[in-house]
Amino acid sequence: MDIGKIDQIIEKHDSEASLLIQILLDIQSTNNWLPKEALTRVSEKLAVPMSRIQHITTFYKTFSLTPKGRHEIHVCVGTACHVRGAQDILATVEAVTGVKPGETDPDLQFSVETVSCLGCCALGPVMVVDGEYHGNVVQAETAEVLEKLKLAETAETLEKLKQSETAEVVNLCACQ
Amino acid sequence: MSEISLQVDGKQVTVEEGMTILQAARSVGVAIPTLCDHEKLAPYGACRLCTVEADAHGRTNLIAACQHPVEKDLVIRTRTEQLDRIRKVLLEQMLAHAPDSEQIVALAQIYGADPNRFEKDANFCILCGLCVRYCAEIKQKHAVGFFDRGAKREINFIPEIAVRECWDCKECFPLCPTSALQAAYVLTEALMSPPEPVAKGCGGCGG
User: Fold this and answer.
1) pLDDT tens, B131-182?
2) Using CA atoms, how far apart are residues A65 and A58, in angstroms rounded to an integer?
3) Cβ B142–A51 below 8 Å, yes or no?
4) Opening angle at CA B176, ends B173 and B182, nearest 5
5) Model confidence over A124-156: pLDDT tens digits?
6) What residues of chain B lie within 8 A of the CB of A58, using their CB?
7) Inter-axis angle of helices A20-31 and A3-12, to 10 degrees?
8) Which domains does chain A have, with CATH numbers?
9) Residue A102 and residue B157: Cα distance in Å, rounded?
10) B198: pLDDT strictly greater than 50
């Protein structure tokens, strides 16, 4: 993560040590996870000991010290969702994305987490994809939502590849 | 500062306001067992072995003597059947983590704690926080800290700080009621000893 961006977030909070958690949350939401450089920078700028930052970041489940995928999938496995077949939904998510709960794929495309309740048991089984709630999901629908995401990802990658190729061509022209 | 008088195990005690019940009890020679208390450190209330019965305002409460400030006309009992039972269970839980700790074994004999009551999970740390607090409050190096939470909570050294500060200090080692701290340090040292930290993750792309 860019140091300048981290400094910007710290300055937004007036380098106030008491806002440590808010700063960490902001970095987490910008970057999806908390790299070590970011923590070191925060520790230096706020004059907060590293042990305290480690204590906090390992205490709260919101914070991730390992890279997270671009798409976060949460599957509720609370009691209500469990009896309505959350395990099947989880199995489908695993089959489509190839990612087990608590893990992220090497391409940083998907992160899958199980949660214990989302507070909307009437919608069970519930799956949340990038903050969007999918209630009363069945296996087919789950697969469909995820396949769409995958397609969109592939299209984006292709687009990027194309752009970089064009850029290369331009470069070639420029040096000739 | 005004003085406050209270009763500890039937003895009348007069101490200064702001002192803890543990300090008041010690001043008249009443011993309360504790593992996480240290005279130079702020009260922490981690081990709960200093739990005592306190009568105040017409009711009886169980309180941690190391943290609770003295109050006027408090009546403290440091050894009752209920307290013995509480301490016995606490010690049995600690013995599951640190079965060979001399301090804990000695206390276990006094309170009749069974070392085999709970399944052994020998990570040796009872999370008293003495090392963490000593490093933060006295040395102000913050080389060792708590990680994670709940059942997974543990102490760990921050390698970058430990490699600079700990070798010449090690003042926290004798504080540890078990041998966990030293083990954690040895582990950190071992991790830091190769000149280049071993890269985790993908060997192929070097990421």
Assistant:
1) 999 999 999 999 999 999 988 898 888 888 888 888 888 888 888 888 777 7
2) 8
3) yes
4) 50
5) 799 998 888 998 988 888 888 888 888 887 887
6) 147-149
7) 140
8) 3-59 (no CATH), 71-169 (3.40.30.10)
9) 25
10) no
Which residue ranges make up each domain of chain B?
A: 3-77, 80-122, 130-192
Instruction: Catalogue the long-range contacts made by A86-90 (C-beta closer than 8 Å, 24 or more residues apart).
Output: A86/A124, A86/A125, A88/A139, A89/A125, A89/A127, A89/A137, A89/A139, A89/A142, A90/A114
Contact A51 B132 (CB under 8 A): yes
A59 and chain B in contact, CB less than 8 A:
yes
Provide φ and ψ at B64, rounded to 5°.
Answer: -85, 115
Residues A48-65 have a mean pLDDT of 92
Residues B62-78, mean pLDDT to the nearest whole number = 93
Determine, for residues B158 and A54 on separate chains, whether the beta-carbon distance falls below 8 Å.
Answer: yes
ipTM value, please give it.
0.76
Q: Which fold has domain B3-77?
A: Ubiquitin-like (UB roll) (3.10.20)
Q: Specify the pairing of strand A71-76 against strand A110-115.
A: parallel
Suggest the residue from B133, B135, B139, B142 to mutate for an interface test with chain A (most A CBs closer than 10 A). Answer: B142
Element (H, E) at A144: helix A139-175
Identify the CA nearest to A19 among candidates A58, A56, A61, A59: A56
Tokens of B150: 């709940």
Point out the residue among A50, A52, A59 whose CB comes nearest to the CB of B149.
Answer: A59
d(CA B127, CA B97): 10
Looking at B91-201, which runs of residues are DSSP E strands? 144-147, 154-157
- Give the orientation angle of helix A139-175 with respect to helix A86-97, to 10 degrees: 20
Return the pLDDT at B173.
Answer: 87
d(CA B54, CA B14): 16
More confident call, B149 vs A158 = B149
DSSP A31-97: HSS--HHHHHHHHHHHT--HHHHHHHHHHSTT--SS---SEEEEEE-SHHHHHTTHHHHHHHHHHHH
Task: Give dist(CA B198, CA B207) in Å, integer.
Answer: 12
**pLDDT for A79 beyond 90:** yes
